[in-house]
Amino acid sequence: MSARSDESLASEAARRRRELREEQGRHATTRALLESANRLLLTVALCDRLADPRDFDLIVGMGQVVNARGSIDWARVDALVEVLLDERPHLAAPRTEAPWRPGSTALQWMQAET
After folding, report:
1. What is the CA radius of gyration of the chain?
2. Where is the region Disordered (predicted)?
3. Does residue 45 form part of some domain?
4. How far is CA 58 from the centre of its chain?
5. In this structure, are residues 70 and 38 in contact, taking their beta carbons and an 8 Å threshold?
6. Which residue of 17, 44, 68, 84 lies most exposed, with the fewest beta carbons within 10 A?
7. What is the pLDDT of residues 50-67, one digit of tens each?
């Protein structure tokens, strides 16, 4: 190979490494935004079941209910909330006479088929 060809390959490799680092940065940003959105969704969904929905993340952890693709497994959330409330009933949200469930209404709206 010629020196020109080696130089061309080296610059191509350097360009590809830069592109990879940029893409990894975009991926990290997207992952952080998804985690933030999931935390917000979970808070809304649990506001009628837990006095402080943040307790779920502190005690159980988001990692227990989010799959590898970043989606929340809502059936797992329900099961873990039941276990949490069985073990720590003092964390339950107070019962109200309101005709609606604050978290479930918002969650149903977000899951509506279009």
Report:
1. 23
2. 1-27
3. yes
4. 14
5. yes
6. 68
7. 999 999 999 999 999 999
